[in-house]
Design a protein that fits this description.
By secondary structure, this protein is mainly α. The protein contains 3 helices and no strands. It has a domain at about 50-85. The longest helix is centred in the N-terminal third of the chain and has 40 residues, at about 5-40.
Length: about 90
């Protein structure tokens, strides 16, 4: 296995990891900003206020994108197995 193949495999791994994690991270960011704005406007300074909406909405985002995430992870696993099979020859 050459250095270029290892670099390509690592790039694919990071790209798929980013694509799988991105929906949950974006939802968490948006909920955090919305709750922060709400706290600023209403002068409510409760630290636990952001946890429940964030947990619920991130969970829903994960469930909503589960099919696409699983498909991408499966395709990555197939490619990595193919690379491993090619390296053994």
């Amino acid at each position: 296995m050459t250095t270029e193949q290892v670099i390509r495999m690592t790039q694919e791994l990071f790209l798929v990891s980013l694509l799988v994690a991105m929906p949950a991270l974006l939802v968490s960011l948006m909920v955090g900003v919305a709750v922060s704005l709400f706290q600023t406007v209403t002068s409510i300074q409760d630290q636990t206020l952001s946890y429940v909406p964030r947990i619920v909405l991130v969970g829903l985002a994960i469930i909503a994108t589960l099919g696409a995430s699983l498909q991408q992870a499966t395709e990555l696993a197939r490619r990595m197995i193919g690379y491993a099979a090619g390296a053994g020859q």
